[in-house]
Each structure stands twice: as structure tokens, then as C-alpha cells.
Design goal:
By secondary structure, this protein is α/β, with parallel strands linked by helices. The protein is 49% helix and 13% strand. It has four domains: 4-95 and 223-273 and 450-478, P-loop containing nucleotide triphosphate hydrolases (Rossmann fold); 108-183; 275-371 and 391-436, Fumarase C, Chain B, domain 1 (Orthogonal Bundle), CATH 1.10.275; 484-709, Rossmann fold (3-Layer(aba) Sandwich). Strand 14 (552-554), helix 24 (561-570) and strand 15 form a beta-alpha-beta unit.
Amino acid sequence: MTEPYDRYFPYERPYPDQQAAMSAIGAALADGTDVLMEGATGTGKTLAALAPALAVGAETGRTVIICTNVHQQMRQFISDARAICRREPLRAVVFQGKQSMCHIDVGYRECQALRDRTRELVEVETEQAELRAQAERLLGAMEAGDADAAAGRAAVMTSLEELAETEAALAGGNICAHYAANLREETDAFFRWLYDDVRTPEEIYAQAEEAGWCGYELLKEGMERPDLVVCNYQHLLDPQIRRQLFRWIDRTPEEVMLVFDEAHNVEGAARDHASQSLTVRTIDRAIAECEEVDDARTGAVLQLLAAVREQITAQVDVQVDATERSVLDEQWMDVPLPGRGDDPILDALRATEAVPAVAATVELALQIGGNLDAAYDRAYQRGETSTRQTSPTLTVAGFLDQQLAAEADPYRLPVGGIRHDPGADAATHRLELFTTIPASVTRPLFAEVGATVLMSATMRPFDVTAEVLGMPDAVQLSYPMRFDPDRRRTLTVGTPALFQAERRNPETQATITTVLADAIGYTPGRSLLFFPSYAEADRYAGQLRGELERPVLVDGAGVQTQPLRETFLETAEAVLCTSLWGTLTEGVSFDDDAARLVAVVGVPYPHLSERRRLVQAAYDAAVSHDPDAGWRYAVEIPTVRRIRQAVGRIIRGPDDYGVRLLVDERYTRAGMTMGQYAVRGSFPQHERAEMIDVDPTKVRFAVRTFFTECDGYPDGPPPIDG
């Protein structure tokens, strides 16, 4: 029986789980119901969501927007969309932000100012052309004896003189030649080219650059009612950008269906988009700006700015001791704010006699800052400045306005910050409005659109995802890995539980090094090792170099991931040590012979920072039916998802094979007695069923046996040492 989504499935036949997923997703989307889907590698998640979504979109007149924050996945979306287009023509657009597509490399505010002035210039040019044509017609009428034509032509010529002055003034300022070409020239050929296939942002940029056009603005203009849009998370999670995107595609929210890939990242991305920060340096610039303003009203604003600066600095400083201050670097350190109120900064401001009406003064600051910002815009347009300045007063006032509004939001809380400022060779401070539970961001989004699919290889537990993101009624779908289980081996190694103190134990470190060296030594190929931090990755890399004859590479903060990955793949039997919280944990495949061993050392819980404590407390308060909600939602589940992502890097196809090594007693059955720290129980049942407990001294035997069974040793298995 033919299903509606079959015409959007570009290959011969779907996998069994893929077929089931398409049927279930299609039914849910047709009913306007959200979907949570976990699908292991090999499930075909992308097409399982995309094909039925496009079918429902065609039937209901909706646009499908699929988005990810992983570049590799975006490339996969483009590949699948192109395959679909060859079977069923689509109006598909791949959209990225202005920064990646700008031909003259200016910021958003500069671009906006240039666009406005350029459009005004071209409009004047168009009006001049129309008036010149009218003048020619009137001249003809005069020569034909029309007595009234002379007066009309005189008026037209006067208008032309005035417009010439306007044109000269506009042309003497800052404009964008690329955008001007968009407005002046015939661009129909671009849009025919655009929809002849699925074009990447790079291709759009190159095509527009060759013609002298602005590809970004052309793309915005040509996105009207597409069948499919591929974009990044920010286009949906930022409310302002989302409204613009919906306007560009000429769709109401109800006419849109969303597909989020790698959706285990939505929580963190939504939290980041909802959080805002204000630095003392910005306040200082705002004070300097207001001191130059000839407006008596700025006195009250200056008092407010000074008081805000004083309170942020004082309330952060009182929480930072001398030891912490002595080790400050250029990275921000979170600092809890004192006091019992929800916002001690605002409480202190209201108690300050110098600022009698905080809300009214903030509103005044918004007015003054807005006027200054408009003046900067005009100066840039006229060419009086080379950059488009933004009013720091407006920036500070906007933050304070948000801070006042956040008082009614229990999940948006202030967090202090301090770091070393190398420019001033001193400490500097900031205040952040931190969003603890992102459902306040995601729930309105999911409620306003037609339906949403969230998919990932690590989506479970579904109840946590639904609670965190605000999708209580979503359909839940799960499809485990269907590859031959004999082609993979998950070993849980009973080393001491690697809590902080144990990780510093030299004997334990020696045991871990031996376990890793044994596993690597009997692995016929490359090995990928994940640690709780870059520091531990570096430490064990150094110890392994003393135990192995193989090349040992190490990742670290500031290391470029792509060159490191390329070196790893080009080096036979290389070992790569990195942090579980680094960029190699997900979105990067090491399939086939790229790597045969992946190990996670310890249970890499994230650093218990001030903001994580706030997140825990928020979930404890919000999810009262679960006494461990804070720990589970804020710490355990994100960590286990990260671990699952890491161990999923090497088994990517039915012919692939490899060993997954989990090194810590907490992964073993014996560790199940450790209460909330017993992470084994947080893995899905089908993954727990594959875990084999191994004594540290037996790891080499287990690894050698597995690769022998998989014919991984072309020259025969190596002998067991010792």
C-alpha cells in the first residue's frame, strides 16, 4: 500500500524501523501532535522525520523547517533534500545567518543602516528616472502645442533638481553596493537557479558574489512559502529572529512544522538564547556617554548607572575570597549573589535614596539611549563614521528593563561574574540574567507552531525531556540499534569509582593507565579516549606515551578540532585523548576503520558551578513529585546523554565493529549500590543489557577475544603478554 510520504522517500525502500517511524510521525503531525523520537545510528532518523513532514506539509499547505546546531548534520539534510528533489520537486532553502553570507563583512546593525540608506538612494534614483520620462513626455507635448505642458514640465524639472541634491547627499554616505545591485538589476535568473536544486549557503554566496549581488538579501526575498527550510537552532529559539524568519517565508506559526535534530542539545541552546549579561565595562561606557549629553534628564540616569555599577561590583566582591581572586584568568567565574531576595541587585537599588524610582528611571534611560542610538545610525548612514556605533546607555537600559521583567519569572535569576581584565590588569565584573528551566523559552515555541518533532540518538528518558522542554503530550518513539550485536562489545571496567579524590590517587591513576594501555595495545586500529576534563586528557596522554609505541594526540581548550581530527585519521593506530565536554563528543563520526576503540574514563559530571546549582534548585522546586529531580535533570541525565553520544562515535554502520569501554565502578553491576551515583541504571535497558562487567586485569583478554571473533587481526591475534 502506498503511503503519502512514499513520494518523499528518495531511496528504494526504508529500513523496517524507518518505515514504522515514518508512519507514526506522519499520523502525529497530521493530528497536530508533537513527537519525541530516539533513534540509534542506522535508524535513518532524518528521512524518518523529513518524508512524513513534507507529505503532511503538502496536504495542509505548511512549511517544514528542519534545524540543527551540528554542521555535519546540516550537510546530511542538504544531501537528503537534494535526493528528494530528484524524485519530487521541492522549493527548498538552506538558510544561515548574515555573518556567514555577508560580502562586505559588517555587523548586523551596520548592515541594517546600510540597507535602509541604500534602499532610500535607489528609491530616489527610481523616482528620478520616472520624472525624467515625464519631462520627456511633457516636452513632446510642448512641441505639439500643448499650452499647459510648459508649466508642468517646469514643476517636474524643479523636483528633479531637488532629488539630485538628495541623491548626492545619500550617495556621499555609506551604502552597500551589493544590495544596491539587488534593487537596480533584474534578479529573476538568480531565483530560477536557486530553486533548480537545493543550494548551500556557500553556493549562494559564490553565485551572488559573481554577479555583484547580496545573496543574503536575495535569499530573504526569495523564501516566500517554501516547502522546506534548513537552518540553525538560533533561527527558532530566538523569538525575534523566529518572527523575522516566519515573516520572510510568509507563514504564520500555525503554518509551520519544526524538526529539531540532535535535539538533546535544545535544552542548553534554549537556555543560552534566553540568558543575557551586562558587564561593568559597558556601564562605564554608558556613564561616559551620558556625561556628554546636553540633557538635564541625564542626571537621574547617571545616578542609576552609578548605583547599578556599585551594587554589581560590591555584591560580587563580597563573595570572592583572596584565594579565588588570586587565580582569576580571562574566563568568567560565576559568583552567587548575597541576600535572601530573588534579585538582590534590584532590592539594593530600590533601597538606595539616590535612585528613588528605578522603573521610571529605566524607562527614561531607554528614551535617552534610543535617541542616542538613532543619532549614531544617522551619522553612519551619512558617512560621518566608519562603523555603526551602538549606544551603551541603550544596552544597559535594555538589560535593566529585562531584569525588572524577570522578577516575575521564577526561572530567570541573576548570577554575578568576575574575571581578570588584561587591558586594565585588574578584576572586572558582570551581571547575568540566567535562565534555569528552558521550558519558559521552548514551551511558547512548541505551542504556537503546527507541530514539532524532536529527534536524537540520546533523547531518553522521555519524561525528563518532556518536563524540561514543555512537551507533556508528545508521542514517544524509540528505535534501538539493529546492527549485529556481535559486532560491538561494551565493557564496563570495575576500577575504583573515580570521584574527585580518587582521581588524584597515584595508584588509581596507574590502574587506569594500565587498563587503557591494555585495551589500546590489543586494538587493531585507532582509539578515541574521553575524560572528565582537558586537564585529565592531557595527564593520561602523557602517561600513555610512556606505555605505548603508538602516536598519542591530545585535545585541549583552544585546539582547532578539524585539523586535529584530520591528523588523527591520517595517523595509523593513533590515540586521541579529549574531554567528554569537548566538540568531538557528538556530530563527528569515526566509522569503519577510523576508530575501533572508544573509552570513557570516569563519570564526567560537569563542574558544579553556581548556575548549575541554580538549575538544580529550580528543578527541585518545579518537579515536586520527584525528590531527585534537580540532580537527575541538571546533572545525571545530561552527563549520561553525553556519555552515550561519545560511545556512539565508532559504530556507524552494519559492517562496522568496535569496543566501547566504560572505566569506573559506577558503570558496573557492583556500582548499583551507590544510590544516585549509580549511573548504570540511567542507561536505556537495551544498552544495559549489552554491558559486560570486566575486572581491570582482564580487559586485554576481553578486547583480544572480541577482535579475534571479528577477524580484526589480518595477521592473526597478537600474543597475550605476561
